[in-house]
Amino acid sequence: MTDEFMTVATVEEMPNGTVRVVRIGSYDIAIYHIDDEWYAIDNICPHAGAPLDEGWVNDKTVTCPWHAWCFSLETGRMTMWDMEGVDTFDLHVADGNVKLNPHPRPKPVAEPAAEVNAGEASSGEVPDSGT
Ligand code: FES
Fold first, then answer.
1. If you take atom 1 of ligand 1, which residue's CA is the nearest one?
2. Ligand 1 pocket residue status of 50, Cβ below 6 Å
3. Burial class of 126 by CB neighbour count within 10 A (0 to 12, 13 to 18, 19+)
4. pTM of the model
5. Model confidence at 118, in pLDDT bands (50, 70, 90)?
6. Which atom of ligand 1 is nearest to the CA of 52?
7. Looking at ligand 1, which atom is closest to the CA of residue 49?
8. Which of 32, 51, 87, 103 could form a disulfide with 39 if both were Cys (CB 3.0 to 4.6 A apart)?
9. Which residue segments constitute the domains of the chain, with CATH numbers given?
10. 3-state SS assignment for residue 56
11. Closest residue by CA, ligand 1 atom 3
12. pLDDT tens digits for 7-35?
């Protein structure tokens, strides 16, 4: 990842509640200005390729317009199952311009499915069987 940021829109062009798609390299990147926050995610749904910018946004989640898979705008991860989801990108606003880093963020690490009882697993002691 680099610190390269490029201007992709002006704030004036993207009032609150709008989304815009920019093509950079091999990515179509959807830039969202929602509830006064900014997000950038890969616009192509990994299920069958729907354009996510045509989906519905609610509570920092976009729902795919074709089959309703849901992705976090913050992390790109699917919200229904523990699957990887879509790439996300850093962006910020400076001097009235929306600046995007065209290199995807590292993918977040999945949460472990279940916790192991660390006390039992690491003590090395064999429980007393009572015999
Ligand atoms: S194409 Fe997005 S859920 Fe199927």
1. 48
2. yes
3. exposed
4. 0.81
5. very low
6. 2
7. 1
8. 32
9. 6-107 (2.102.10.10)
10. strand
11. 67
12. 999 999 999 999 999 999 999 999 999 99
